[in-house]
Amino acid sequence: MNFIPSYRNLLKSGELKSRVATAKQLLSECRICPRECKIDRTAGNTGVCRSSELPIISSYTAHYGEEPVLSGTKGAGNIFFGNCNLSCVYCQNHEISQNWKSETENSVSVERLAEIMLELQAKGCHNIGLISPTHFSAQIIEAIFIAAEQGLSLPIIYNSNGYDSVETLKLFEGIVDIYLPDFKYGNDEYANRFSNAPHYFRTAKNAIREMYRQVGSKMIYENDILMRGMIVRHLVLPNDLAESEKVFEFIAGELSNEINISVMSQYFPTHIANENVLLDRKIRQTEYEKVISLLSKYNLEKGWVQDLESSNYCLPNFNSDRTNPFSF
Fold first, then answer.
1. Would you state the pLDDT for residue 106?
2. Model confidence pTM above 0.70
3. How far apart are the first and last CA of the chain?
4. Cβ neighbours of residue 171 closer than 8 Å, sequence gap 6 or more
5. Which residues make beta-bridge pairs with 226?
6. Would you tell me the crossing angle of helices 110-122 and 137-149 to the nearest 10 degrees?
């Protein structure tokens, strides 16, 4: 592999070690995520995410269900973190994100987290995918530093719910090469009601704007696998509860219509969603097609869509120079 992940350069310069110290300071009066609970997680206290100092890992594996340019033939090396800084009533991973696992169950040391990254590399995975990493950002940065010292050389994917702190994201500059945020809502009322996420739209816009500043819209590939770039995911909800048009309008108008969009169709009323009449069914074909049509309206022509029945990604049509990965 010719591509050198950005954090290798930070390791060489000593900056990566400095980032570890800075990130740890955020835990003592926690400002890791936009909630800014300001509790001392280093003393074992917990805030909204119910997580203290040790990272919680539900599982890790070579994953083949991501966008094709991430999963490739050998899988994305995904690490699924426990707990979450959101509480979505329809969360498909609620047993992981809202089970509030104690630190005696699935907690690990940062050294063990580093070992997991190296294990996934040894299995041949194309990258390290951090799934719901926001609330463990400080610990992740330290683990990347430890793993990098021991030879980690895979691109890092930051796969978050979009409810991220700009201050924390700045610590990932030069560490993360691939940003994969969700952009869940274009409406603060629904975000608060269904995900307990005050000011989500404003917060996600600021976070995704920062991610874009760091990596831009250009996608860098090696052997058809994404090495550096940004993909924004958007889950279509019933009854237009995600207000998809607001999301696309922001991306095209304030960032770039060159950004790759992944429009997801796999919503179903899991967890406690069926208790709400607005969320108690799958999305309809007409709803999904309406959202897809908005992509054309805003000239967002790069990315992936899904088959409504299977949720399989439509394969991208690459051109010869890999600069225009997909046209809907």
1. 84
2. yes
3. 30
4. 19, 22, 23, 137, 141
5. 221
6. 60
